[in-house]
Amino acid sequence: MPSVLPTGKRVEVFYDGDCPLCMREIRMLMRKGLLHHIQFTNLAAPGFAAEEHGTTYAALMERIRGRLPDGTWIEGVDVFRELYAAVGFRRLVAISRVPGLSHLLALGYRVFAKNRLRWTGRCLPDQACAVP
Hints:
Elements: E1 11-15, H1 20-31, E2 38-42, H2 57-62, E3 65-67, E4 73-75, H3 77-86, H4 90-96, H5 101-119
Parallel strand pairs: 1-2
Antiparallel strand pairs: 1-3, 3-4
C-alpha cells in the first residue's frame, strides 16, 4: 500500500489550531527543527475538510489524532509518543510506556480532551461545550 503521507514523514498530526494549550505543544514540536518527520494538519485552517481524510471533523476534535504512513489512525497518548519519537524524545517515549504510568497518562489525556474546550475558554457560560 502506498504511503498516505509525503515522502519522509513518519506521522501526520491533526491538531486544533484554535486551542491555546494545544498550540503550545505544536509550536514546541515545530521548533525542534525536524519538520520533515511530521506532517502538521490544522483543523482550524480555512478550507480544512475532514472528509478528504476519510473521517469527520467531530471525530478529529474529540481527541488528538494522527495517521501513520500506511494510513493507520492513532489517537491520544499514542500520537504524542509518535510525535516525541519523531523529534528525538525517545527516552520520554520509553518512560511513557512504563506500566501504571502509561495508564495514568492515558487517563490524564482523556480528562484533558473531554474538558479542553471549557478549560481554554471556548464554551459559552452555562451551556454545554460543543464542537463548532
